[in-house]
Specification:
This protein has helices spanning 4-11, 18-30, 85-93, 114-124, 144-153, 183-188, 195-200, 208-214, 240-251, 275-288; strands at residues 40-44, 52-56, 64-70, 97-101, 132-142, 173-177, 226-231, 256-261. With 290 residues, it is α/β, with parallel strands linked by helices. It has an eight-stranded mixed beta sheet, with helices on both faces. Helix 1 packs antiparallel against helix 2 (18-30).
């Protein structure tokens, strides 16, 4: 059985350049196949085995706010929602429904546009849940999941032809945990090696419009509150990703708060026992207004 500490140690392999593949592979070897935890409701939003999500509801019968928890892993199929479920369980203990979503990733049918379509469909499926307060839904995502969380928060502003446009469920905000928020810059700096062009299936020079639709940085202003949490010792996703996004978003008039965690790396943010996650949880509560 994997422990959270093993996940963190696996993450120290490094996820940049060749290290991206090594880091993901280490986590995959140590991680069990994703299984819903006790009390979770597994929801299918499509026919593919990756088109599922686990909903952890707090005790009681009343309407509850929801945090959509989106795992990372440079959009690659080696990572799964087992990285998100401990956070979803923790949120449920705080009175917030935790919704850990899976989605098709690079290597199992994902990439452009499938991953975007899946994230959108998973979130929209919340509209069918009677206990969900649809006025209080935020997304919380780590690393590549941070990219997807902030992208999802801006779906209402997408053009009609774009993947994920015309949402049924409009997010009230997003929390990015060391997210990859500027895909053009990430491509230029080779964040995750070739993870970005593998994910989008092209380069900025060949198809800038695709990057404009996919990258939160390119879509500013989103007109949705965003919280950024990033460790100063993150060796996988440079903290400049969050700083660049903060500066550009504020200049465009968006509400953005960046919390820099001193002496914190990449994987502490998804350890429910770590203060880094508690900071992310506090930002989630703030955006939900609970």
């Amino acid at each position: 059985m994997i422990t959270r500490r093993n996940l963190l140690l696996a993450g120290t392999v490094g996820v940049a350049g060749v290290g991206a593949t090594a880091g993901v592979a280490a986590l995959a070897r140590r991680s069990p196949k994703a299984q819903p935890g006790k009390g979770a409701m597994t929801i299918s939003y499509g026919t593919d085995e990756s088109q599922v999500a686990d909903l952890y509801l707090p005790e009681g019968n009343g309407k509850v706010p929801v945090a959509v928890v989106i795992h990372g892993g440079f959009w690659m199929s080696s990572y799964g929602r087992e990285l998100a479920t401990p956070l979803a369980e923790d949120l449920a203990k705080q009175g917030i429904a935790g919704y850990a979503i899976e989605y098709r990733r690079v290597g199992n049918g994902g990439g452009w546009p499938a991953t975007f379509e899946d994230v959108a469909a998973a979130i929209d499926k919340l509209a069918d849940q009677p206990r969900v307060d649809l006025s209080k839904v935020v997304a919380v995502g780590h690393s590549a999941g941070g990219h997807l969380a902030v992208w999802a928060a801006g779906r209402a502003g997408l053009p009609p032809e774009a993947p994920g446009a015309t949402p049924r469920v409009v997010l009230a905000g997003a929390v990015s945990q060391a997210g990859v928020l500027d895909l053009v810059n990430a491509y230029d700096e080779q964040v995750g090696g070739d993870a970005v062009p593998a994910f989008l299936g092209t380069t900025p020079a060949k198809d800038r419009k695709r990057y404009q639709l996919a990258s939160p940085y390119e879509r500013l202003p989103l007109n949705v509150p965003v919280a950024l949490v990033h460790g100063t010792r993150d060796g996988q996703v440079p903290i400049e990703q969050s700083r660049r996004y903060r500066d550009a978003a504020v200049a465009k008039g968006d509400q953005v708060k960046l919390t820099e965690l001193e002496h914190v790396g990449h994987f502490e943010l998804i350890d429910p026992d770590d203060k880094a996650w508690q900071t992310c949880r506090a930002e989630t509560v703030r955006l939900l207004g609970t």
